[in-house]
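Service request form, structural biology core

Requester: graduate student, group of Dr. S.
Request type: structure prediction, single chain
Budget code: on file
Notes: please return the result as structure tokens.

Sequence provided:
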Amino acid sequence: MAIEFQTEGRIFTIQTDATTYQMQADTYGHLLHLYYGETAAGSMEYLLTFEDRGFSGNPWEAGEDRTYSLDALPQEYPTQGTGDFRSPAMAVRDAGGVWGCHLRYQSHSIRKGKYSLPGLPAVYAEEEEAETLEIQMEDPDTGLAVTLYYGVLPRLDVITRAVKAENRGNSPLFLEKAQSACLDFLAGTYDLIQFYGRHAMERQFQRSALGHGAAVIGSRRGTSSHQYSPFVILAEPDTSENHGLCWGLSFVYSGPFKAEAEKDQYGQTRISMGIQDEMFSYCLKPGEAFYAPEVIMSCSGQGLGRLSRNFHKTIRHHICRGRWKLTPRPVLINNWEATYFGFTGSRILEIARQAAELGVEMMVLDDGWFGKRDSDCSGLGDWQVNEEKLGCSLAQLSEQIHGLGLQFGLWVEPEMVSEDSELYRKHPDWALAVPGRKPVRSRCQLVLDFSREDVVDYIYEQISRVLRSARIEYIKWDMNRSIAEVYSAAADRQNPGEILYRYVLGLYRFLERLNREYPELLIEGCSGGGGRFDAGMLYYTPQIWCSDNTDAMDRIRIQYGTSFGYPISAVGSHISAVPNHQNGRVTPMETRGLAAMAGSFGLELDLDKITEEEKACVRRQICQYHQDWNLIHNGDYYRLAAPEEGSELAAWMFAAADGSEALAAAAALDVHGNAPASLIRLKGLRAESEYRDEEGRIYSGSGLMRAGIPLPRFREPYGSWRLRLWEVNHDENK
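Core staff response, request fulfilled:
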């Protein structure tokens, strides 16, 4: 069993293949956290220390014992009002305005399989792959009952956390904060690694020493955001890619979030993650329940690389679902950067004809095919095909594209509405806006109130009608603004502090229905690129457009940061034109293809404007991608050289789990005259084996990993290098 309960001392121990997690329900009923780290045996209760802490208060049950204080003890799920003045995981207010919640252990259950959460995405697993621990807590004063969920996937070194809060009292209760996971560390010095950014430059790596006080990141934007990723790492200072101890937390949620890391007065560290508590206040009526979304946790004693691969496997195999979970996805071309809004049906067909000659497998028609939509200032919400613009019906265009041997896809933005639209003129109350105030616009559009079931159902039927009208194998689901005004015309039926949470539930309900009714459809998530790149969306969309920035050099940096928490199979990435439309940079086609190949791979450019030599390069890359798809998407991913500020080189690689084959890649971030040689050490190979490259050269696995391999001299800006390896006599070496 991965989960054990020791009656004497009431100690819970969770064992994964390489880690141990332990907690204790003590004599007062408080659930104390004892340990989370590399595998350890026995009870860790001895780690707790008790001293009179002066201004640290003592619970009533402790009587005259001033050495017992929750302000200094490590806790599993700390609440506000207990005398613990660190940041709580839960804050509760009763109907009379009194704050405070005192949870006590009541009971627990252990079972095979993995729990699920109603209306929310969560890690799933077969019964033999996982175990679930549920711990029942209760506050006798308010009648609040809290269930702490722990899902354990031992082989992946993953533990998931989620929370259910239920009002068993007679009066309403208000959840003012409800985090999903909290970890307390008794001692140690740590670095916080987080991933900041902006639109078109998401998930930039930042590592900072965690000092006294609190480091807080999150989103107030209605989505998980471009600015901060709902994925963080706590690491010991000497932890590197291949060595050291680190912990990761990934939020399986697509709305506003908050992650806090706090070093307290006694040098203890607390890190927590959950829903953003600003603009959050959830009313629990008697008999009602609230579910806090899931957090995926993993611990690695072998560095950041192992931690990332734990998350990659978990998301690839236990978050992503459906036909496209592990199936090779079509190489597509999107017309956006080739035409923007200025296209006709015949222009789209011409792009498709040229793309088919290169080996592209799908044509995607982006924004502008519906309603009165010739700019981004009108038409959203009117999901009727503009046949005048296309010169034919959508079904006819789709059939012509299929006649070229290509599949067909569409761009949609279901959560948005334009003021210049028939939908808004008919239903202005369906937009999130404050009555009597001028709305805050972004990209000339407003946000539909997806907290309302009637709005979600209407838009679903409009999009579904389009999907039924033609052969459509793919949709790109976009969301191109943040939510500024949190007010619903239906707010008389709910607490306004619930709107953003209910909005996300509405989004998930739409996507779940879409997945169920169109199981063959490939859905790519997008929010102005990577503005909603999170594990929650990946439960419904197996890939997400990583960034609206398609420049190869910027994409290498964006995809580097993304790789810490998310698998390559989740990354939407395309070859685009030069000079690049976002920053004007000119990079070689080989490098653009190599960067795009570390993702879903596709094209986003005007094929009339590339040379025959570049077309030949694209053909080769598409063939290579098909040959290497399984290795790239299902192999182990290694970061070899980080594209940090001032770095001259970025390098990464993919290796089969058994070491039988590998693909290494590198790109020059800068070039110099008379430059020294650059060597990179490969990873994931078998030290005792030999490897052959495409030219027939033979290398030893130990040499490639321990001594490295020199890269060729890059004689042009932003040059690139690729090395494909196969184990010699693989079958004999197994």
